[in-house]
Amino acid sequence: MTDGDLLRCILHVMGRSVIPPDEIRAAVGKGKNRVKAFNLFDGNNTLQEVARKTRIDQGNLSRAATSWVENGIVFWVGEGNDSRLLHVYPIPEKAPRRAR
């Protein structure tokens, strides 16, 4: 396990304690592809790779990612050509069912 892996774990734990999954899901927006794109921003994929994997127009994905950065649910790591987006933690593709 690297230092980067440990920092990612800390980020995920802190993110869950501060931002509930429902708020992240609301900020991500509706649509299975948007959730898939959000989850692909794990610090390993470029914006172009996520656009190709989800078949979302790169311009639309870029605008969504900018909104997510402004909402504090993803952030940039790295510099220049090595920069990637990293989510605070992945969310399930389907929203959990609510008890009555």
Report what the structure shows.
With 100 residues, the protein is mainly alpha-helical. The protein has a single domain (3-87), classed as Arc Repressor Mutant, subunit A, CATH 1.10.10. The protein contains 5 helices and 2 strands; from the N terminus they run H-H-H-H-H-E-E. A two-stranded antiparallel sheet has the order 1-2. Strand 1 and strand 2 (84-87) form a beta hairpin. Helix 3 runs antiparallel to helix 4 (47-54). The protein is globular. It starts with a helix and ends in a 13-residue tail after the last strand. The mean pLDDT is 85.
Using the CA coordinates, give the radius of gyration: 14 Å
**The CATH topology:** Arc Repressor Mutant, subunit A
- The portion of residues assigned to helices is 40-55%
Count of beta strands = 2
Structural class determined from secondary elements: mainly alpha
Cα end-to-end separation: 42 Å
Give the neighbour order of strands across the main sheet.
Answer: 1-2
Global geometry? globular
Biggest β-sheet description: 2 strands, antiparallel
